[in-house]
Write a structure and sequence with these properties.
CATH architecture of the largest domain: 3-Layer(aba) Sandwich
Number of strands: 12
Strand order of the largest sheet: 2-8-7-6-5-3-4
CATH class of the largest domain: Alpha Beta
Distance between the termini: 26 Å
CATH superfamily of the largest domain: Type I PLP-dependent aspartate aminotransferase-like (Major domain)
Mean pLDDT: 95
Length: 354
Protein backbone atom coordinates (compact mmCIF):
# COMPACT_ATOMS: atom_id res chain seq x y z
CA UNK A 1 0.00 0.00 0.00
CA UNK A 2 1.07 3.60 -0.57
CA UNK A 3 1.66 5.19 2.83
CA UNK A 4 3.03 8.46 1.48
CA UNK A 5 1.48 11.36 3.41
CA UNK A 6 -0.66 13.72 1.37
CA UNK A 7 -2.78 16.74 2.12
CA UNK A 8 -6.41 15.59 1.82
CA UNK A 9 -8.57 17.38 -0.72
CA UNK A 10 -11.59 18.61 1.18
CA UNK A 11 -13.10 20.50 -1.75
CA UNK A 12 -15.78 17.92 -2.45
CA UNK A 13 -16.82 17.44 1.15
CA UNK A 14 -20.20 18.83 2.07
CA UNK A 15 -20.73 19.66 5.73
CA UNK A 16 -18.39 17.34 7.60
CA UNK A 17 -20.31 14.54 9.30
CA UNK A 18 -17.37 12.31 10.28
CA UNK A 19 -13.67 13.17 10.33
CA UNK A 20 -11.61 10.00 10.40
CA UNK A 21 -8.42 11.33 8.82
CA UNK A 22 -6.42 10.86 12.03
CA UNK A 23 -6.69 10.79 15.81
CA UNK A 24 -4.82 14.11 15.73
CA UNK A 25 -7.96 16.03 14.71
CA UNK A 26 -9.60 15.82 18.14
CA UNK A 27 -10.84 18.99 19.82
CA UNK A 28 -10.23 19.83 23.47
CA UNK A 29 -13.33 19.34 25.59
CA UNK A 30 -14.76 22.08 27.78
CA UNK A 31 -13.33 20.38 30.87
CA UNK A 32 -9.91 20.16 29.26
CA UNK A 33 -10.06 23.85 28.32
CA UNK A 34 -10.95 24.71 31.90
CA UNK A 35 -7.91 22.78 33.11
CA UNK A 36 -5.74 24.71 30.65
CA UNK A 37 -7.15 28.08 31.70
CA UNK A 38 -6.65 27.36 35.39
CA UNK A 39 -3.18 25.84 35.16
CA UNK A 40 -0.48 27.04 37.51
CA UNK A 41 2.45 28.07 35.31
CA UNK A 42 6.03 29.30 35.41
CA UNK A 43 9.01 29.60 33.07
CA UNK A 44 9.79 26.08 31.87
CA UNK A 45 13.21 27.04 30.47
CA UNK A 46 14.11 27.71 34.11
CA UNK A 47 12.40 24.41 35.07
CA UNK A 48 9.90 26.51 37.04
CA UNK A 49 6.60 25.48 35.47
CA UNK A 50 4.92 23.30 38.10
CA UNK A 51 2.35 21.85 35.72
CA UNK A 52 5.01 20.80 33.20
CA UNK A 53 7.06 19.29 36.00
CA UNK A 54 4.02 17.39 37.25
CA UNK A 55 3.31 16.03 33.75
CA UNK A 56 6.92 14.96 33.23
CA UNK A 57 7.03 13.24 36.61
CA UNK A 58 3.66 11.58 36.02
CA UNK A 59 4.60 10.08 32.67
CA UNK A 60 8.02 9.00 33.91
CA UNK A 61 6.40 7.22 36.84
CA UNK A 62 3.81 5.54 34.62
CA UNK A 63 6.62 4.27 32.38
CA UNK A 64 8.87 3.27 35.28
CA UNK A 65 11.56 5.70 34.14
CA UNK A 66 13.74 8.18 36.01
CA UNK A 67 12.80 11.36 34.16
CA UNK A 68 10.59 12.94 31.52
CA UNK A 69 10.83 15.92 29.20
CA UNK A 70 7.96 17.78 27.50
CA UNK A 71 8.25 18.42 23.74
CA UNK A 72 5.97 20.30 21.41
CA UNK A 73 5.68 17.34 19.03
CA UNK A 74 6.48 13.68 18.60
CA UNK A 75 8.79 14.45 15.69
CA UNK A 76 10.89 16.74 17.88
CA UNK A 77 10.87 14.21 20.70
CA UNK A 78 11.96 11.34 18.44
CA UNK A 79 14.67 13.48 16.86
CA UNK A 80 16.12 14.46 20.23
CA UNK A 81 15.88 10.86 21.44
CA UNK A 82 17.70 9.34 18.45
CA UNK A 83 20.42 12.00 18.61
CA UNK A 84 20.81 11.49 22.36
CA UNK A 85 21.95 7.95 21.53
CA UNK A 86 23.76 8.53 18.21
CA UNK A 87 26.79 10.66 17.43
CA UNK A 88 27.59 12.04 14.00
CA UNK A 89 28.08 9.18 11.57
CA UNK A 90 26.62 6.57 13.92
CA UNK A 91 24.03 4.18 12.55
CA UNK A 92 20.64 3.23 13.94
CA UNK A 93 18.46 0.29 12.92
CA UNK A 94 14.77 0.90 12.21
CA UNK A 95 11.79 -0.80 10.59
CA UNK A 96 11.24 0.27 7.00
CA UNK A 97 7.71 1.56 7.66
CA UNK A 98 8.57 3.44 10.86
CA UNK A 99 7.40 7.03 11.25
CA UNK A 100 10.88 8.23 12.25
CA UNK A 101 12.24 6.94 8.95
CA UNK A 102 9.59 7.94 6.43
CA UNK A 103 7.49 10.72 7.97
CA UNK A 104 9.88 12.93 9.94
CA UNK A 105 11.62 14.64 7.01
CA UNK A 106 14.92 12.83 7.45
CA UNK A 107 15.70 14.97 10.47
CA UNK A 108 18.10 12.55 12.12
CA UNK A 109 20.33 12.57 9.03
CA UNK A 110 19.77 16.23 8.16
CA UNK A 111 20.43 17.65 11.61
CA UNK A 112 22.44 14.97 13.38
CA UNK A 113 24.24 13.03 10.64
CA UNK A 114 22.87 9.80 12.14
CA UNK A 115 22.56 7.11 9.48
CA UNK A 116 19.36 4.98 9.40
CA UNK A 117 19.58 1.33 8.32
CA UNK A 118 16.08 0.14 7.35
CA UNK A 119 15.02 -3.39 8.27
CA UNK A 120 12.38 -5.02 6.10
CA UNK A 121 9.06 -5.68 7.87
CA UNK A 122 6.00 -7.80 7.28
CA UNK A 123 2.48 -6.49 6.66
CA UNK A 124 2.05 -5.83 10.40
CA UNK A 125 5.27 -3.87 10.80
CA UNK A 126 7.09 -6.76 12.51
CA UNK A 127 10.69 -7.75 12.11
CA UNK A 128 12.59 -10.41 14.06
CA UNK A 129 15.47 -10.50 16.54
CA UNK A 130 17.62 -12.27 13.95
CA UNK A 131 16.99 -9.34 11.59
CA UNK A 132 18.42 -7.01 14.24
CA UNK A 133 21.48 -9.17 14.78
CA UNK A 134 22.13 -9.45 11.05
CA UNK A 135 21.90 -5.67 10.56
CA UNK A 136 24.50 -4.75 13.20
CA UNK A 137 27.77 -3.89 11.48
CA UNK A 138 30.95 -5.64 12.51
CA UNK A 139 33.83 -3.37 13.61
CA UNK A 140 35.44 -2.19 10.40
CA UNK A 141 36.71 1.17 9.21
CA UNK A 142 34.44 0.93 6.18
CA UNK A 143 31.22 0.76 8.22
CA UNK A 144 29.34 3.15 10.45
CA UNK A 145 29.12 2.18 14.12
CA UNK A 146 25.69 0.74 14.95
CA UNK A 147 24.55 2.27 18.24
CA UNK A 148 20.74 2.21 18.41
CA UNK A 149 17.63 0.18 17.65
CA UNK A 150 14.59 2.39 17.04
CA UNK A 151 11.20 0.70 17.51
CA UNK A 152 7.60 1.86 17.10
CA UNK A 153 4.29 0.81 18.70
CA UNK A 154 1.69 0.68 17.33
CA UNK A 155 2.89 0.41 13.72
CA UNK A 156 0.09 1.63 11.46
CA UNK A 157 -2.25 0.47 14.20
CA UNK A 158 -0.69 -2.99 14.51
CA UNK A 159 0.22 -3.89 18.09
CA UNK A 160 3.73 -5.09 18.81
CA UNK A 161 3.32 -7.36 21.83
CA UNK A 162 5.30 -6.91 25.03
CA UNK A 163 7.00 -10.24 24.40
CA UNK A 164 8.01 -9.24 20.90
CA UNK A 165 9.40 -5.86 21.97
CA UNK A 166 11.27 -7.60 24.80
CA UNK A 167 12.86 -10.06 22.38
CA UNK A 168 13.97 -7.30 20.02
CA UNK A 169 15.35 -5.19 22.86
CA UNK A 170 17.17 -8.16 24.40
CA UNK A 171 18.91 -8.84 21.11
CA UNK A 172 19.81 -5.18 20.79
CA UNK A 173 21.37 -5.24 24.27
CA UNK A 174 23.40 -8.32 23.38
CA UNK A 175 24.73 -6.36 20.41
CA UNK A 176 25.61 -3.34 22.55
CA UNK A 177 22.80 -1.12 21.25
CA UNK A 178 20.58 1.39 23.04
CA UNK A 179 16.83 1.10 22.37
CA UNK A 180 14.38 3.93 21.63
CA UNK A 181 10.63 3.39 21.25
CA UNK A 182 8.45 5.78 19.27
CA UNK A 183 5.36 5.30 21.40
CA UNK A 184 3.13 7.77 19.58
CA UNK A 185 0.29 5.26 20.08
CA UNK A 186 1.83 3.19 22.85
CA UNK A 187 -1.21 3.77 25.04
CA UNK A 188 -3.33 2.13 22.31
CA UNK A 189 -1.00 -0.88 22.30
CA UNK A 190 -0.97 -1.09 26.10
CA UNK A 191 -4.78 -0.88 26.36
CA UNK A 192 -5.16 -3.52 23.64
CA UNK A 193 -2.76 -5.81 25.54
CA UNK A 194 -4.27 -5.05 28.96
CA UNK A 195 -0.98 -3.81 30.43
CA UNK A 196 0.53 -0.54 31.59
CA UNK A 197 3.01 1.33 29.41
CA UNK A 198 5.74 0.33 31.86
CA UNK A 199 5.46 -3.25 30.55
CA UNK A 200 6.93 -1.93 27.31
CA UNK A 201 9.14 0.86 28.63
CA UNK A 202 11.10 -1.43 30.92
CA UNK A 203 12.78 -2.88 27.84
CA UNK A 204 13.87 0.45 26.34
CA UNK A 205 16.16 3.35 27.18
CA UNK A 206 13.82 6.08 25.94
CA UNK A 207 10.16 6.27 24.92
CA UNK A 208 8.26 9.08 23.17
CA UNK A 209 4.70 9.29 24.52
CA UNK A 210 2.33 11.36 22.40
CA UNK A 211 -0.56 13.12 24.12
CA UNK A 212 -2.16 14.71 21.02
CA UNK A 213 -3.35 11.57 19.21
CA UNK A 214 -5.73 9.14 20.89
CA UNK A 215 -5.51 10.90 24.25
CA UNK A 216 -6.91 14.06 22.70
CA UNK A 217 -4.64 16.81 24.04
CA UNK A 218 -4.06 19.66 21.57
CA UNK A 219 -0.24 19.58 21.73
CA UNK A 220 2.60 17.64 23.18
CA UNK A 221 4.78 14.57 23.64
CA UNK A 222 6.76 13.54 26.69
CA UNK A 223 10.07 11.73 26.26
CA UNK A 224 10.86 9.46 29.19
CA UNK A 225 14.07 7.65 30.05
CA UNK A 226 17.05 7.52 32.36
CA UNK A 227 18.48 10.76 33.74
CA UNK A 228 21.51 10.78 31.43
CA UNK A 229 19.50 10.27 28.24
CA UNK A 230 16.95 12.92 29.21
CA UNK A 231 19.75 15.36 30.08
CA UNK A 232 21.21 14.92 26.59
CA UNK A 233 17.75 15.27 25.06
CA UNK A 234 17.16 18.45 27.09
CA UNK A 235 20.18 20.12 25.49
CA UNK A 236 19.07 18.90 22.07
CA UNK A 237 15.59 20.30 22.66
CA UNK A 238 17.16 23.71 23.19
CA UNK A 239 19.18 23.37 19.99
CA UNK A 240 15.99 22.48 18.12
CA UNK A 241 14.21 25.58 19.41
CA UNK A 242 11.98 23.57 21.69
CA UNK A 243 12.48 25.53 24.91
CA UNK A 244 9.12 27.05 25.85
CA UNK A 245 8.03 29.37 28.64
CA UNK A 246 4.64 29.19 30.39
CA UNK A 247 3.86 25.91 28.70
CA UNK A 248 1.92 24.61 31.70
CA UNK A 249 -1.29 25.59 29.92
CA UNK A 250 -0.52 22.86 27.38
CA UNK A 251 0.77 20.44 30.00
CA UNK A 252 -2.52 20.84 31.89
CA UNK A 253 -4.39 19.56 28.83
CA UNK A 254 -2.01 16.61 28.65
CA UNK A 255 -2.49 15.81 32.34
CA UNK A 256 -6.27 15.94 31.84
CA UNK A 257 -5.89 13.55 28.92
CA UNK A 258 -3.83 11.11 30.99
CA UNK A 259 -6.39 11.27 33.80
CA UNK A 260 -9.49 10.84 31.65
CA UNK A 261 -8.70 9.46 28.20
CA UNK A 262 -6.46 6.40 28.56
CA UNK A 263 -8.95 3.64 29.40
CA UNK A 264 -11.46 4.98 26.87
CA UNK A 265 -9.03 4.17 24.04
CA UNK A 266 -10.69 0.76 24.13
CA UNK A 267 -13.84 2.50 22.87
CA UNK A 268 -11.96 3.67 19.78
CA UNK A 269 -10.77 0.13 19.11
CA UNK A 270 -14.31 -1.22 19.47
CA UNK A 271 -15.70 1.50 17.23
CA UNK A 272 -13.15 0.76 14.51
CA UNK A 273 -14.14 -2.88 14.82
CA UNK A 274 -17.80 -1.86 14.49
CA UNK A 275 -17.03 -0.20 11.16
CA UNK A 276 -14.95 -3.17 10.04
CA UNK A 277 -17.73 -5.60 10.86
CA UNK A 278 -20.26 -3.40 9.10
CA UNK A 279 -18.16 -3.37 5.94
CA UNK A 280 -17.43 -7.11 6.00
CA UNK A 281 -20.40 -8.02 3.73
CA UNK A 282 -18.90 -5.77 1.04
CA UNK A 283 -16.06 -8.23 0.55
CA UNK A 284 -18.33 -9.73 -2.11
CA UNK A 285 -17.82 -6.47 -4.04
CA UNK A 286 -14.03 -6.68 -3.74
CA UNK A 287 -13.66 -4.39 -0.70
CA UNK A 288 -10.75 -5.47 1.49
CA UNK A 289 -10.81 -4.24 5.11
CA UNK A 290 -8.08 -4.65 7.74
CA UNK A 291 -8.86 -3.53 11.31
CA UNK A 292 -5.89 -2.64 13.56
CA UNK A 293 -6.72 -1.10 16.99
CA UNK A 294 -8.19 2.32 16.10
CA UNK A 295 -7.38 2.14 12.38
CA UNK A 296 -9.04 0.66 9.32
CA UNK A 297 -7.10 0.04 6.12
CA UNK A 298 -9.64 -0.16 3.31
CA UNK A 299 -8.76 -1.16 -0.24
CA UNK A 300 -11.56 -0.94 -2.82
CA UNK A 301 -11.31 -2.30 -6.35
CA UNK A 302 -9.04 0.01 -8.33
CA UNK A 303 -11.75 0.66 -10.91
CA UNK A 304 -14.04 2.33 -8.36
CA UNK A 305 -11.51 4.00 -6.06
CA UNK A 306 -11.97 7.52 -7.41
CA UNK A 307 -15.75 7.33 -7.58
CA UNK A 308 -15.90 5.90 -4.05
CA UNK A 309 -13.76 8.73 -2.68
CA UNK A 310 -16.02 11.30 -4.36
CA UNK A 311 -19.09 9.58 -2.91
CA UNK A 312 -17.68 9.48 0.63
CA UNK A 313 -16.63 13.12 0.50
CA UNK A 314 -20.07 14.10 -0.77
CA UNK A 315 -21.48 12.30 2.28
CA UNK A 316 -19.31 14.48 4.51
CA UNK A 317 -16.83 11.74 5.40
CA UNK A 318 -13.18 12.70 5.71
CA UNK A 319 -10.48 10.04 5.69
CA UNK A 320 -6.96 9.68 4.37
CA UNK A 321 -7.76 8.78 0.80
CA UNK A 322 -4.50 7.20 -0.29
CA UNK A 323 -4.51 4.87 -3.27
CA UNK A 324 -4.86 1.97 -3.46
CA UNK A 325 -5.52 1.77 0.30
CA UNK A 326 -7.46 4.33 2.36
CA UNK A 327 -6.98 4.88 6.08
CA UNK A 328 -9.79 5.58 8.55
CA UNK A 329 -8.93 6.38 12.18
CA UNK A 330 -11.38 6.41 15.09
CA UNK A 331 -10.89 8.72 18.06
CA UNK A 332 -12.74 10.36 20.94
CA UNK A 333 -14.68 12.69 18.60
CA UNK A 334 -16.12 9.77 16.57
CA UNK A 335 -19.29 8.23 18.00
CA UNK A 336 -21.44 5.24 17.04
CA UNK A 337 -23.73 7.38 14.86
CA UNK A 338 -20.79 8.57 12.79
CA UNK A 339 -19.42 5.04 12.55
CA UNK A 340 -22.78 3.82 11.27
CA UNK A 341 -22.89 6.69 8.78
CA UNK A 342 -19.58 5.47 7.33
CA UNK A 343 -20.93 1.94 7.03
CA UNK A 344 -24.14 3.17 5.40
CA UNK A 345 -22.25 5.36 2.92
CA UNK A 346 -20.08 2.47 1.74
CA UNK A 347 -23.11 0.18 1.50
CA UNK A 348 -25.10 2.68 -0.58
CA UNK A 349 -22.18 3.20 -2.95
CA UNK A 350 -21.74 -0.49 -3.69
CA UNK A 351 -25.50 -1.03 -3.94
CA UNK A 352 -25.65 1.66 -6.61
CA UNK A 353 -22.58 0.25 -8.38
CA UNK A 354 -23.98 -3.29 -8.49
Amino acid sequence: MDLSPTSPDLSMASSVRADLRSDTVTQASAAMRDAMANAEVGDDVYDEDPTVNALQDRLAAMAGKEAGLFFSSGTQSNLAAVLSHCGRGDEYLIGRTSHVLINEAGGTAMLGSAVPWPIEVDETGHFLPEDVRAAVKEPDQHHPVTTLLSLENTVNGHVQTVEHVASLASTARECGLAVHLDGARLFNAAVAQGVGIDAYATHTDTVSLCLSKGLGAPVGTVLVGDQASIARAHRLRKVLGGGMRQVGHLAAAALFAVDHHVDRLADDHVRAGRIGAGLAPLADHGLDVVHTTNMLWITPPAAVHGALVDHLKADGILATYWAPTMRFVTHLDVDDEQADHVIDSFARFFAQAA
